[in-house]
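We modelled the chain as a single entity of 142 amino acids. Its sequence is:
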Amino acid sequence: MVDLQSILAEHRSKKMEDSSHNKSGGGPQLKPTSSEIPDIFFDKIIVDFKLSRIEILVLVYIYRRVWCFPNLHRSHGISQMMSHTEMAKNLSLAIEDVYSALRKLEEYDMIRTIRAGQYFSRRFFSKEMDKVFEQTYDDFEL
């Protein structure tokens, strides 16, 4: 009769196999990334503006596209062209919710539509905060 110790000694964990597979170069290796969001977003913007969950998702999505990812128009605070459908898909939102959030964020003057799928986004989220932190966008003002 085989004892339990010998069975356990021969057993290999799937987790161990997966990690050894990745080390050998056979699978994708994921590395954590980060995006810099100014503390003013958490300390003032969310508190003062009472944004909905969807509005926060859309604002941070646009903010990351403008300020955290490679972008030729960063000095002006303008995003590259993006698809509303792709944005909705990436955020797991209905397209109508994305459009509604975009309109609300424009009312707050946190973003402005340059053309469909391209947005002006302030570095510090509001005109007042940009003035406090002396962000000028190379004299680009809408």
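As a brief sanity check on the tokenised model: The radius of gyration is 23 Å. Helices lie at 4-10, 14-23, 39-49, 53-68, 84-91, 95-107, 127-132.
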